[in-house]
Amino acid sequence: MAPPGPPSSAPHVPTDGPRDGEGGVRVRLSGLRRTFPGGVSVLEGMELDIAAGSFVALVGPSGCGKSTLLRLVAGLDRADAGTLSFSPPLERTPGERAPIAYVFQDAHLLPWRSVLDNAALPLELTGVPGPERHATARAMLEHVGLGDATSRYPAELSGGMRMRVSLARALVTRPRLLLLDEPFAALDELTRNRLDDQLRALWRELGMTVLFVTHSLSEAAYLAERAVVLSRRPARIMVDHPLALPAERSAALRATPDFAREIGVLHQALERGESA
Q: Three-state secondary structure along the chain?
């Protein structure tokens, strides 16, 4: 195991987040360890405290364990040691909507279903009647700018439009925790920036907790309130950095000295993590 890195800064608890975290959930990781078959250590003693309603970006070298961490939080994988807790508890009784939503890098739309039916799928799986689920899905598609594409099919959509459907499908249940694993990585820069704006606007409106994995330091700084930079595996936190940027963000922010300064902090931590 690599020697310990520099101490991380104290976890940032947002003071201007949407509705003071009312729509989100606090996520706490304590001593989390995950080792893959063959003895490959990915996470070793991971400690992380994510405030309810906050937007946190995870960045780090390729293969460092970012996606593994996200899968553990989602319940798609199980840690070998340590604890993972949510406050309030993310428990769902039969018939309730899923409290966690996950957006992958690939949109994973069902090609035989319309945009509307793809977006409504989580509600259908929990037994929501057709008229209600379609009305809810249609409203969320309006939110992501696809209100005029509800009857189209995935093959008729651009990559950016498919990701918007995927995002609408994730948010249609109004989850308390939204997990995103490099969802915009394959898109052109202009489309990616537009989707960043839409995602941040939806977060501020809905108030859920967001954990966003990205390789882009610029995207992390623009989207998040707080950025956690990980080392190469086994992943350790190199810096846990509250981003000193305004709550209201626009494209002009990317050209400011403050934005460049924040990217510089993350870049320095990433370099330390690469060589750790």
A: CCCCCCCCCCCCCCCCCHHHHCCCCEEEEEEEEEEECCCEEEEEEEEEEECCCCEEEEECCCCCCHHHHHHHHHCCCCCCEEEEEEECCCCCCCCCCCCEEEECCCCCCCCCCCHHHHHHHHHHHCCCCHHHHHHHHHHHHHHCCCCCCCCCCHHHCCHHHHHHHHHHHHHCCCCCEEEEECCCCCCCHHHHHHHHHHHHHHHHHHCCEEEEECCCHHHHHHHCCEEEEECCCCECEEEEEECCCCCCCCHHHHHCHHHHHHHHHHHHHHHHHHHC
Q: Considering the chain, what is the average pLDDT of its residues?
A: 86
- pTM over 0.85? The answer is yes
Which tens digits make up the pLDDT trace of 248-267? 999 999 999 999 999 999 99
What CATH number should be reported for the domain whose range is 18-90+176-275? 3.40.50.300
Low-confidence stretches of the chain (pLDDT beneath 50): 1-19, 93-95
> Tens digits of per-residue pLDDT, 35-75?
888 888 888 888 999 999 999 999 988 888 899 999 999 98
What residue ranges do the domains of the chain occupy?
18-90+176-275, 109-174
